[in-house]
Design goal:
With 366 residues, the protein is α/β, with parallel strands linked by helices. It has 16 helices and nine strands. It starts with 17 loop residues before the first helix and ends with a helix. Bound molecules: coproporphyrinogen I.
Length: 366
């Protein structure tokens, strides 16, 4: 809808900035908490809103994205919201067809096969034109959220997007995409660079639209070994944060950035020196050892095993307490180590949020 284009940016005042303070390592009264995929199929109201509608058409509707983003906040006292969208809107903006196939997940009917296929991609992407619907969703949501909590924008990281563009969808081995790294390293770097350029513009557009923090998802980091990660992921993650920050600084803006490189615990030290304020962790790393390895350099986010949400509520509370004791309450944002699954009990997500708030308040008081 065109009228959203001109929504004013005089947003309601932020009432709960705990998440932003924790991202910067500042003092807080309780540990902030949100959940990856907090807007998702585990909520009956989400299933109802999404029923019978095409996934990417939903992503293209600012009103639908706004509603789905707000749904979890009506149930639980989360300290942040993440805009409803998907990482695969970036390959779409570069000219690739992506469809959501029921029972299979996102699918590219014509994935990249050989380096020549890079010619099919749009190099100079006008993000305002191709991804303006995401920006409008963010602006609308910033108004409708009424300053309750900060709104997080996000993007997939270059390697994760590259792997989808070559695999054509989800994969266990990612061997088609990894083949490129070993057979076509130059073309791989070319593609990663193209993606980086679009992602930088995309993230800046999200901030201009009203995003108050940014998360970069390198969900497929774990399929790379340390050497490949250092060559094909880390430099681009660093470049994204540096370029976004340089541009924001020029405008006098300061927006915390989170990097979530799933299963990349082998690169924790490097990630903590990659220009991001916050490093997100999956559940395969022990909180205390993560804290010891990075010192006080960055804030940490994570990392309860999402499957712990299948446990009874009292057990969830115990697990949360241990997690808080490991990370400490300063420079820490509680989250899961990955997204909520569709078969999880909404009540248990509520128990998780409450346990974080309750235990951390007590720990801070002592
Ligand atoms: O119809 C549906 O509801 C389908 C499920 C779904 C949802 C809820 C998909 C398909 N995407 C989303 C939304 C989404 N995706 C969000 C929004 C908000 C929130 O977190 O509350 C975000 C941040 C993403 C990001 C995303 N999409 C990632 C990175 C995070 C992660 O999970 O590692 C990835 C890898 C995707 C791709 C994707 N989109 C959807 C699916 C099922 C997948 C995974 C496909 C696969 O690899 O098998």
């Amino acid at each position: 809808k065109q009228e959203n284009l001109i929504l004013p940016k005089d947003f309601p005042q932020l009432k709960n900035d705990t998440f932003l303070r924790a991202a910067r390592g500042e003092e807080i009264e309780h540990v902030p908490v949100w959940c990856m995929r907090q807007a998702g199929r585990y909520l009956p109201e989400f299933r109802e809103s999404r029923a019978g509608k095409d996934f990417f058409e939903t992503c293209q509707s600012p009103e639908a994205c706004c509603e789905l983003t707000l749904q979890p906040l009506r149930r639980f006292p989360f300290d942040a919201a993440i805009i409803f969208s998907d990482i695969l809107v970036v390959p779409q903006a570069m000219g690739m067809d992506v469809q959501m196939v029921a029972g299979k997940g996102p699918t590219f009917p014509e994935p990249l096969k050989e380096p020549e296929d890079l010619q099919r991609l749009q190099v100079k992407v006008d993000t305002a034109k191709e991804l303006g619907y995401v920006f409008r969703a963010i602006t609308l949501t910033r108004h409708k959220i009424e300053g309750k909590v900060p709104l997080i924008g996000f993007s997939g990281a270059p390697w994760t997007l590259m792997s989808y563009m070559i695999e054509g969808g989800g994969s266990n081995t990612h061997s088609k995409a990894k083949r490129w790294l070993y057979q076509h390293p130059e073309a791989s770097h070319m593609l990663l660079k193209m993606l980086t350029d679009v992602i930088v513009e995309y993230l800046l557009g999200q901030v201009a639209a009203g995003a108050q923090a940014l998360q970069v998802f390198e969900s497929h980091a774990g399929i790379l070994g340390p050497a490949e990660f250092k060559e094909f992921s880390l430099p681009y993650l660093r470049d994204i944060a540096r370029r976004v920050k340089d541009k924001l600084k020029e405008a006098g803006q300061d927006v915390p950035m989170i990097v979530f490189a799933k299963d990349a615990h082998y690169a924790l030290e490097e990630l903590s020196q990659s220009n991001y304020e916050v490093v997100g962790l999956d559940w395969t790393i022990d909180p205390l050892s993560a804290r010891e390895r990075i010192g006080g350099k960055v804030s940490l986010q994570g990392n309860m095993d999402p499957c712990a949400l299948y446990a009874p509520k009292e057990r969830i509370s115990d697990i949360v307490k241990k997690m808080l004791e490991g990370f400490g309450t300063r420079g820490y944002i509680a989250n899961l180590g990955h997204g909520v699954y569709p078969d999880m009990e909404p009540e248990n997500i509520g128990a998780f949020v409450e346990a974080v708030h309750q235990h951390s308040k007590q720990m801070i008081k002592q």
